[in-house]
Specification:
single chain, alpha/beta, TIM Barrel, two-stranded antiparallel sheet, 15% strand, globular
């Protein structure tokens, strides 16, 4: 093979034994997972808000941001369930650039996967311990999920991974809700096939084992916009898009718990994070107009951090994204409070 092997990494069991979760964290995860599942089964009518940085680039700023979310959550607890984004793997369209906290727990240093595995687990544990939230991450590398599966609350499968067989099969074995994004092409059939696969039991190879999954009834759609053949970003959160998704679900009565989360950034906003509050308002207007839309829309995914915009690695601004641009804290707080008032 045309590669060098640097070192053998510890297996999840070893990392969990060395960095175990506390009884407090275990209890929080168990209780908050139940709350989240109730949203996807329609028993809890609060709106889900999966919100946070495009990528978790440094522990201090991420935990600072989550503490700010905690204080806002107390004000909107009757209307909204907040799940902070702690996305520790960053997919790169061309395989270049900062690849996330897992690869570089210190963005200014060279990649260190052994250190990154531990740093990711510690960051997720601290977030739950200190805030009382359960958090979200993306499955970019399916085998890595076992390092944090006892802490996670919500998981996404990204637009570039949703057609991959291993991602679909792994999603079918998770105990938490999994949002499967539409692919960058915008083909909703691909996403619906992924949801179907994730809700079914499977027999497959996972981490060198012959594994059986039981199917995930909480696998659901995430609309994130798409890119046409000319490379232009186009949205898919408008009323007509939501009606079309409802029709797709109606054509597949075998699917359990029909639901969609609207990703307000990426191609839906043309990567302009300041459009996110406007997109939320439009979707909520459509929910008020049509009860079928209100029933299927379970929440939003928002890219937000302490400071507006983005910077290059090493830019030096605390709490500003080093990947996609994010909505800053002041605008985020106002958006969440306005959202609660609209519900």
């Amino acid at each position: 093979m045309n590669m060098d092997f640097e070192r053998k990494l510890p297996i999840p069991m070893e990392v969990k034994a060395q960095y175990p979760i506390t009884a407090k964290v275990e209890k929080t995860v168990r209780e908050r997972r139940k709350d989240l599942i109730r949203i996807f089964t329609g028993q809890d009518h609060r709106l889900l808000l999966v919100i946070g940085p495009c990528s978790a680039d440094r522990e201090d700023a991420v935990l600072d941001y989550i503490e700010r979310l905690r204080r806002v959550q107390e004000q909107v607890a009757e209307e909204i369930m907040i799940v902070p984004r702690i996305f520790t793997n960053k997919p790169r369209s061309m395989g270049e650039g900062y690849m996330g906290f897992l690869h570089q727990p210190d963005a200014d240093e060279k990649p260190d996967l052994a250190k990154g595995i531990v740093a990711v687990r510690e960051l997720h544990m601290r977030a739950v311990e200190e805030s009382g939230f359960i958090c979200a991450d993306e499955i970019l590398y399916t085998e890595n999920y076992k390092y944090i599966d006892d802490i996670m609350g919500y998981v996404t499968v990204g637009a570039r991974s949703v057609e991959d067989q291993q991602h679909r099969l792994t999603a079918s074995g998770l105990e938490v809700p999994v949002g499967l994004k539409n692919p960058t092409s915008g083909d909703l059939t691909v996403m619906m096939n992924a949801i179907h696969a994730a809700q079914q039991p499977h027999h497959f190879i996972y981490r060198g084992w012959a594994a059986y999954s039981h199917g995930n009834p909480y696998a659901h759609a995430v609309l994130r916009g798409y890119t046409n053949k000319h490379g232009q970003s186009l949205p898919n959160y408008h009323y007509e898009d939501l009606i079309r998704l409802i029709q797709f679900y109606e054509e597949r009565p075998e699917l359990k718990n029909p639901a969609v989360i609207i990703d307000t950034n990426h191609s839906n906003s043309g990567k302009d994070p300041f459009q996110q509050p406007r997109i939320i308002r439009e979707v909520l207007e459509n929910c008020r107009y049509d009860n079928a839309v209100r029933k299927i829309v379970r929440g939003f995914m928002v890219e937000s951090y302490i400071e507006d915009g983005r910077q290059e690695v090493g830019g030096g601004v605390y709490g500003r994204s080093i990947t996609d641009a994010c909505l800053g804290w002041d605008k985020t707080e106002r958006m969440i409070l306005d959202l609660a008032e609209m519900l």
